[in-house]
Amino acid sequence: MQDNKLNYENIPLEKFEFVHDGDRISDKKFEDKPISYFKDAWIRFRKNRASVIATVIIALIVLFAFITPLFIRNYDSRFMDAYYAKKGPRNEFLSQFGIANGSVARKFSDKGLIKAVAIGMGAEDHEGNGNVTLEEGLASKYQPIIEGSIGEPSITYDAAKKEKKVYGANIDTYLEVGFMYSSIEQSEYNDILRYQEETGIQVLYPLVADNEWNFDALDANYWYKTKKGTPVYIDKNGKAKTIEYGEGMVLEDNYVRDADGNPVYFEYTGGGSFDTAQYKVRVLYYNYYQYKNGFTPQYILGTDSQGYDLALRLADGIKLSLLVAVCVSVVNFIIGAAYGAIEGYYGGTVDIVLERVTDVLSGVPFIIVATLFQLHLASKLGPVACLIFAYVLTGWIGTASRVRTQFYRFKNSEYVMAARTLGAKDRRLIWKHIFPNSLGTIVTSAALSIPSVINSESMLSYLGIVKLGTASTTSLGNLLAEAQGIWTNYPHLMICPALVLSLLMICFNLFGNGLRDAFNPSLRGVEE
Amino acid sequence: MGKAKKTGGRRSGMGKYVVKRIVLMFFTFFIISTICFMLVRLLPRELPTDKVQAAAIQERWEALGYNKPLLVQYGIYLKNIFTKWDFGTSWYIQFRQPAWDVLTSRLLPTVLVNLYSLLLSIPLGIGLGIFAAIKKNKWQDSLISTLVMVFISVPSYVYAFLVQYLFYFKLGWLPLMVYSINDAGGSWLTGKMFHSMIAPILALSFGEIAGLCRFTRAELTETLTSDYMLLARTKGLTRGQATVRHALKNAMVPILPMIISSFIGIMGGSMIIEQIFSIPGVGQLYIKSITLFDYDVFMMDSIFYTFIGLLANIVVDISYGFIDPRIRMGEK
């Protein structure tokens, strides 16, 4: 080392040689493939376990929204049945395992329990003999009380110190609907008779007499004799004796009977000709439903407050929320990018003027924009379009300011100047050279705007400012709004949409955070 | 002497900046409320079904110039505000009460609920944030961060349902809704009223705590790893001393403006929480004014919200300038 330093002036000629004797100097090609910006981001995104799981959950929710309608072949999302509204999940396959059997646990008084059990007893007796025992009734297919769920009665005392028995039991809320009166035409009546013969499913049941023993003439489930709702039998002296729930219980029927003592199944209520004649009949609704629709009532998540299938409504709500959110974030992405690019690139007066515009726009509270859009345009364009417009009006400001900052950072850097010197036009400089630098941040902000849009959309429809609930559309917030006030009795109405909404929010936030970290090159290698 | 002069210079620079921002704020506010007024007055007005009342209201509207051209109406509106502080009249919510009175009478419940919630969430949020930052990358931190993620994401009305379910239906500790003022002894400040307000306070606080906690943790972890912390430790300060006197102090610089703006935001309140717990506040008034087509009140509420939003914004920016000596706003 020392020698070389001393002798550098007198290096002998033969020690020199040409570096590239005859060869052309060129950059060596990389052996491996270059990693692009997005590929690099993807590699880092994959390492973030929480974000990956969140993405999978989002995918599952989206899949649920699109696949559920395919699985339910019997009816579509507009199918509704008002009598089976607010019912819990029910599925015949799953009910074998004791779940999704449409049941709720409830406390029954003595007469309440008899009323429930009587539905099964009455269903076994379409001939109107009135001799069905409790055991036969409990074994009935149409018995709303779940088999073996009736517990030992506990004794309580009411205000008058009177002894009261309270039974705990699980009751199938679908079968609990029991019997009801229906007004049908002659043709339908004939049709039902044919149906009964073909399938053996009994729809029509004897009518109940409207006499002193009938507690509620409109409630077709009181087919037995009662006194103020308490079941009674008439002893030999013509006196009413109370019946209590217990083994071997037989209820005394209160059916309308003709002169021969046979039960009556229909009553003429009006209409002149053969076609228009109306009949009052008493139907077992569970079977009437089968007759009308051709399938038994099964709703995997239960029904909503109006009687639509909750799973389908939920799928509709998810689709709508995602549609709005994705539309909004894409449009905001485009507007924000263009606006921010122009602001940042040209600067000066253009920037000042455009910034004043965003200042004013960003001062408008979103809720007021949304309300005014709904009030003015909802009748013309529909609520969904108005909602999207409202989000777009102020939503792009955040993206624009991010892009603007990036442009300020990069527009005077050397490589941009070099490109400009080489004759690149403004448009090329903006989109080819500077804009890709800000892509990462705005992709992240677009992804993070999705949960906030979903949240505020559900809030607006919950508050009723945006009315999205119709027969064909609904939103998650709308489902929650419908559950308000009644959800404590029907928890599934609230739990399902709230759970989906919360999951969507959490997962989109995690997904967005993962993207943010992945697109941030300064975090490269930090995790390892 | 020299130092005083310097700060004096900074103050005057700040003063100019503050004045400029306030003038700009009022300019923005004026534009927004003008557009808002036009859009609200363009809406078809609804009359009550009762014919006598409808005729009376129709006549009042005629007299107040509601049927004149839009710009004339706007002139009347501005004139009434500047001369009589009259922002219009409520026609349905509180018949013929001034809109201003209708709004201000609902301010107190909103402010109280949100104030209580802030008083609960600020210490908890900042405390948890500090704890998480100190225990960074340990299990306590991961637990807090995960919970924060969940609590920030879940919408506030889900908490409202949970709180109602747990504390009203299961435990029976709290009432389902906030009492009306008559039920609670004629004042918003009674103990009974506070008791009924606990549920909405809790529902509001979850998100607030999580937000503050995340923010504090992020700021504090950044300051904890900075060079001056190393210097402080090498000078011989204990970890606690260095954290409290150096890291925390610096971390509070961005946190304080956020808290200040929250305090302004309490006037706006949360519509959804007010709706669920039936708090007769500003947010509920907004919903009511839409459903009842009480457009003068709607206008009043809208400009109120706009004003609060702008004010919070400007206060944050200005307080940054006062709190953070590194930021010298308005100086070239």
Which percent bin holds the helix content of chain A?
Answer: 40-55%
CATH-derived architecture of the largest domain in chain B: Orthogonal Bundle
Question: How many helices of chain B does DSSP assign?
Answer: 13
- Give the termini separation of chain A: 40 Å
Strand content of chain A: 5-15%
Which percent bin holds the helix content of chain B? over 70%
Number of helices of chain A: 16
CATH first level of the largest domain in chain B:
Mainly Alpha
Which fold does the CATH topology of the largest domain in chain B refer to? MetI-like fold
CA(first)-CA(last) distance of chain B: 24 Å
Average pLDDT value of chain A?
83
Radius of gyration of chain A, in angstroms, nearest whole number? 37 Å
- Overall average pLDDT of chain B: 84
CATH homologous superfamily label of the largest domain in chain B = MetI-like
The dominant shape of chain A is elongated
**Strand order in the sheet with the most strands of chain B:** 1-2
* Main sheet overview of chain B: 2 strands, antiparallel
Please render the helix and strand layout as text.
The complex is a heterodimer of chains A (528) and B (332).
Chain A: H1 2-7, H2 37-47, H3 49-71, H4 92-95, E1 103-109, H5 110-123, H6 134-138, E2 154-157, E3 163-172, E4 179-185, H7 186-199, E5 204-205, E6 226-227, E7 230-234, E8 240-242, E9 266-270, E10 278-284, H8 285-293, H9 310-346, H10 348-363, H11 366-381, H12 383-410, H13 414-421, H14 426-463, H15 476-483, H16 491-519
Antiparallel strand pairs in A: 1-3, 2-3, 4-10, 5-10, 6-7, 7-8, 9-10
Helix pairs in contact in A: 2-16, 3-9, 3-16, 9-10, 9-12, 9-14, 9-15, 11-12, 12-14, 13-14, 14-15, 14-16, 15-16
Chain B: H1 2-42, H2 51-64, H3 70-84, E1 89-90, E2 97-98, H4 99-105, H5 107-134, H6 139-153, H7 156-170, H8 191-224, H9 227-234, H10 239-265, H11 271-276, H12 282-291, H13 295-323
Antiparallel strand pairs in B: 1-2
